[in-house]
Amino acid sequence: xxxxxxxxxxxEIAIRIMRACRELGIKTVAVYxxxxxxxxxxxxxxxxxxxxxxxxxxxxxNTKAIIAACEISHAEAIHPGFGFLSENADxxxxxxxxxxxxxxxxxxxxxxxxxxxxxxQTMKKAGVxxxxxxxxxxxxxxKAYELCREIxxxxxxxxxxxxxxxxxxxVNSEDELESNYLTASKEALDFFGNGDIYIEKFVxxxxxxxxxxxxxxxxxxxxxxxxxCSLQRRNQKVLEESPSPIMTEELREKMGNAAVSAAKACGYxxxxxxxxxxxKDKNFYFMEMNTRIxxxxxxxxxxxxxxLVKAQIRVAAGEELWFSQKDVKVSGHAIECRINAEDPRHGxxxxxxxxxxxxxxxxxxxxxxxxxxxxxxxxxxYDSMIAKLIVKGADREEAIMKMRVALAEFIIGGVETNIDFxxxxxxxxxxxxxxxxxxxxNRTNIMED
Length: 449
Description:
Layout: E1 4-7, H1 11-23, E2 27-33, H2 40-44, E3 47-52, H3 63-73, E4 77-79, H4 89-97, E5 101-102, H5 107-114, H6 116-125, H7 141-151, E6 155-159, E7 168-171, H8 177-192, E8 197-201, E9 207-215, E10 221-233, E11 236-242, H9 249-265, E12 270-278, E13 284-290, H10 297-304, H11 308-316, E14 333-340, E15 342-343, E16 349-350, E17 353-354, E18 357-359, E19 366-370, E20 377-378, E21 385-393, H12 396-409, E22 411-413, H13 419-427, H14 429-433, H15 440-443
Parallel strand pairs: 1-2, 1-4, 2-3, 4-5
Antiparallel strand pairs: 6-7, 6-8, 9-10, 9-12, 10-11, 11-14, 12-13, 14-21, 15-16, 17-20, 18-22, 19-21
Helix pairs in contact: 4-5, 12-13
């Protein structure tokens, strides 16, 4: 087991990883930008090292500074969390070259699964259902016209190196193709340094269902059930739950087996997630693989009782998985709400500022992952998520009621947040009935009285 781990991240995920390390008896090293000098993760780690100015490219994406911090502190491993460098194959290779354990898959696996077009080919060979579309990237507009006529509209244009909702465009007809193709490619180039686009048939009103995986270095792979992430706003997840309201035991077995096959096909190791789209007839299709821990991992922890971050660390240290698929039991129902410093009444604009008062909810099976405190100033340079509120109930009905109570108790003064938005969503009739899809929040004004 490691003696010391550097956490190459900030905010609530950095705090989450620190807690797991401490439970395993591991010392922690935080890295922080100049804007995060007063951030909680920089204050409570065993050691903290400044790695640059506020801009992410100069700090949390500064690979040389992070490697230097690791060497200065004598940390043996780096946990990247999610976002920033968590799916950067070159950084994973750099860690390996420097004799530092990267807590996640290696760079070759990241390349294979991070490139959406390449991943799709791998899944097809493994027998995992995929959405009809291009075999790899579509290099020219002319090829795009040809393929779209073949598979039929509507189609989705997607950045091959994309993620986080960037470089995605819906095209309903041929006269919309040219402008969307050029715009998606430019956005992909600007955000990911790669303008390659691939095309898929658009699945009308699908659900977004993902399966959590754990894989060790000895070929053992298990799935930990599914999460329903269909409640999204502009391709950004808002609320997640496990199990999915549409899931049956038969469908879970089929999708879980497909997810495990997908991981084995690419020789995957550590924690990862296979994401599927599920249509109204419960046909499912591979969408992408996330080669890191997910924001919404706590709902899986609640219903399985397995600490995913500690599992990541143990696997990275060379331990074999200590349980098999038959040992995984899903119990109860968990819901996670992402709490953002944003104003839902004005286009969800980010609202950085100083928190002047804070009251966090509590109670049986109520969990908060956060790094904010009264007096903390939320910087304008990073993602607007400031907390995750997670609850578990005996069933979905109890979980919904518990989340309503917890949201009503959650008070954050001094900045606008989406707490009221989440509370209204928890009271929405269609949400309560489990009748929603990926586009539901784009079609519905939850804030309407």
